[in-house]
Design brief:
heterodimer; A: two-stranded antiparallel sheet; 18 helices; 1% strand; B: alpha+beta; elongated; transmembrane (chain A); Molybdopterin-containing oxidoreductase family membrane subunit (chain A); membrane (chain A); NrfD-like (chain A)
Chain lengths: 492, 184
């Protein structure tokens, strides 16, 4: 097979058809795909899995379990809220985690609507990441209310005081946005998994496993009368999740932007937050998928092409984020608003400027090496940049929230902020919880979308056999996607 | 010693590829069958028209589900903010003109209700969940979720006949033709 084929049968100028990289390498069969993905959860877990799982579970149990027990039994004061920064630290962590989730929805919804078929190899794991990240995020606002048993006050439930929530407040919008986001992401993730759970069910020996996978696969039979509705449902969920994901981080940014605090009160916040969320989320997808791909031998399904694409998205969104940082500075200068200027001077030259420069360096400079193909092809470099971005996005939230709050309108409030031990404990605990949940996901659920990956193979096209001896042979062979086969055969 | 009565569910025939399944589906459709289905490990593009299926009505259900969400959110916000507990916050009015501040919640509940409608509407249209199905009695059907393509024609189809239907499936390229029976 040549890298460029001439379309000899057509009239007009002869244009070379560029070869498109295949999504699944080495001509793997349907059965190989089933075997390899189900093997991840059917075989004994490798030693490395235990090596990661045991410490993560311990950190999660002590950090989140113990940390929250201490918090609830003692009081929210253990978070060191005697500072003007107040709940700044938990909110930094909340925004950090909720942002991570956004890449999962981007991959599953937006890339689906734009027919980016490379998403099929990574969407399942990315959606799982979304669910777990939102769970980690939810801990902070739920417990920062202080008396966590009163958290139902967030919901509009009639109560004896006759008090109702303020629907004009971005904080209440946030409650609705985040809970809707979690629910719809869970529905999307679960419905996407039903055919694959059926695959596992059909491979199980009779027993408890078969019963459980059988229950959760709902009696799926893969009939086209089911697929027909299922495909429509998937399209609808993608179409619903796309505006949803954009709205969630916009609403999160409204929490800040609708206030009159210098440094927060800017209209650039919604797009800037959404770009940052996707940026940080893709970094997390790479952070967890590169090791998983290596440990379970998924290189033929999660190819270098996938990693290259994700690196490019990181480069793009990182540059957007860099633009937003500079635009914030420019607007502060250009507006002539004295307090806005002071806020940014404080960020750059104040006592927190270390965080500002970490943010700039890690988020804006580090992804720029992805302009070079060599860097996108080297997994160590990709992993290092992903790690930089993970940290950089945390620093971004720290800069936005803590720096601003420690220097508000009243000079009497001005104070340097350091997190309490309890603060740090809980944050590290959520990292452990995230990893624990993700490792359990790898252990019990199909980590790649089996049905959709099969669908990207050339022979999945119902007209594949017809085109085998077709005059346009070359074109159909090169086209990696069935939709393109239709288009090219219509011409030829 | 027990004699189990068996009831015939129908024929199950395997096809070697997605292309073969597609062509066979067109022929079964043209033969006028109505109670039959194609089983494949992944959704096959264009099989709906080859089977003569109509477009799913799910979008209509979701439209009404989503509209319910919008109305619910509006009623909730308007009822609590204007009628039950009017409070002036951020100098915003406590009448209908405050409605732009309700848009985010109206949007989110539209999506939430739509999401639930997709889930439950889909399950209703697929007639799932169910604990068992006669096809699961087949010895080869488990491969439908792995790498095999099947057509199942039910015995309760008016056009079904034990000989002619089997012959049809053979003619259109079906292999491993099996009479699936369920225990009564």
């Amino acid at each position: 097979m040549a890298t460029a084929t001439e379309t000899s049968q057509r009239q007009g100028p002869k244009l070379p058809v560029l070869k498109r990289e295949k999504l699944i390498l080495n001509g793997r069969s349907y059965h190989w795909i089933t075997e390899r993905i189900c093997g991840v959860l059917e075989n004994r877990q490798p030693f490395l899995w235990w090596l990661l799982f045991v410490p993560s579970a311990i950190i999660a149990a002590i950090g989140v379990g113990g940390g929250l027990f201490h918090l609830v039994s003692t009081g929210v004061g253990v978070w060191g809220n005697t500072n003007r920064v107040m709940w700044g630290w938990p909110i930094v962590n909340f925004v950090f985690w909720i942002g991570i989730g956004h890449a999962g929805t981007l991959i599953s919804a937006i890339l689906f609507l734009t027919r980016q078929n490379w998403r099929t190899s990574i969407n399942r794991a990315a959606e799982a990441m979304t669910i777990f990240a939102v769970m980690c995020a939810g801990i902070f606002p739920a417990f920062h209310v202080g008396r966590v048993w009163m958290v139902w006050f967030l919901a509009p439930i009639p109560n004896a005081n006759g008090i109702w929530q303020n629907f004009k407040s971005p904080l209440l919008w946030d409650v609705f946005a985040v809970s809707t986001y979690f629910t719809v992401s869970l529905i999307f993730w679960y419905l996407g998994m039903v055919p694959d759970l059926a695959t596992i069910r059909d491979r199980c020996k009779p027993g408890l496993r078969k019963i459980l996978y059988g229950l959760f696969s709902l009696g799926w039979r893969g009939g086209n009368r089911q697929w027909s509705h299922y495909e429509m449902a998937y399209l609808l969920l993608a179409a619903l999740s796309t505006p949803l994901v954009l709205s969630v981080h916009s609403v999160v940014s409204f929490d800040f932007a609708t206030s009159v605090v210098p440094g927060w009160h800017t209209t650039i916040f919604p797009p800037y937050f959404v770009a940052g969320a996707i940026f940080g989320g893709f970094a997390m997808v790479l952070t967890i998928m590169i090791p998983a791909r290596f440990i379970y031998g998924l290189q033929d399904m999660i190819t270098m092409k996938h990693i290259d694409n994700m690196a490019k998205i990181i480069l793009l969104t990182g540059t957007i984020v860099g633009y937003a940082y500079l635009m914030e500075l420019f607007v502060a200068f250009y507006s002539g608003a004295k307090f806005e200027m002071e806020a940014f001077k404080y960020r750059i030259a104040g006592p927190f400027n270390w965080a500002y420069f970490w943010m700039m360096g890690l988020n804006v400079l580090s992804p720029q090496i992805f302009w070079f193909k060599k860097c996108r092809e080297n997994l160590w470099v990709v992993m290092a940049v992903a790690m930089c971005v993970n940290c950089g996005m945390w620093f971004e939230r720290f800069v936005i929230i803590v720096t601003t709050l420690s220097r508000m309108w009243l000079p009497g409030d001005w104070k340097y902020f350091s997190p309490s031990g309890q603060d740090q404990f809980l944050f590290v605990g959520t990292i452990g919880m995230f990893l624990t949940l993700f490792l359990l996901f790898l252990r019990f659920l199909p980590c790649i979308n089996i049905a959709e990956v099969k669908w990207t193979l050339l022979e999945s096209d119902p007209h594949f056999d017809d085109h085998h001896d077709h005059p346009d042979h070359g074109v159909t062979e090169e086209a990696a996607y069935q939709h393109e086969i239709h288009a090219s055969s219509a011409k030829g | 010693m027990s004699t189990t009565r068996k009831r015939v569910y129908g024929y199950l025939a395997e096809f070697k590829s997605a292309s073969a399944l597609y062509k066979a589906a067109e022929k079964v459709r043209d033969a006028g069958f109505s109670k039959w289905d194609c089983h494949s490990p992944y959704p096959i593009h264009g099989l709906d028209s080859a089977m003569g299926l109509k477009r799913s009505i799910l979008p209509w259900l979701v439209f009404f589900g989503g509209s319910t969400g919008t109305l619910t959110a509006f009623s909730l916000a308007y009822g609590t903010q204007v009628l039950l507990y009017p409070t002036v916050v951020q100098a915003k009015p406590v009448n209908i003109f405050t409605v732009p501040a309700f848009f985010p919640v109206m949007f989110e509940l539209t999506i939430l209700f739509s999401g639930f409608t997709v889930l439950f509407g889909l399950l209703a249209l697929m007639k799932l969940p169910r604990f068992n199905h006669p096809l699961f009695a087949s010895k080869q059907f488990h491969r439908a979720t792995d790498d095999a393509f099947f057509i199942a024609i039910e015995a309760r189809d008016p056009k079904f006949s034990p000989e002619a239907t089997k012959a049809l499936l053979e003619n259109i390229g079906g292999t491993n033709i099996e009479l699936v029976e369920e225990e009564d």
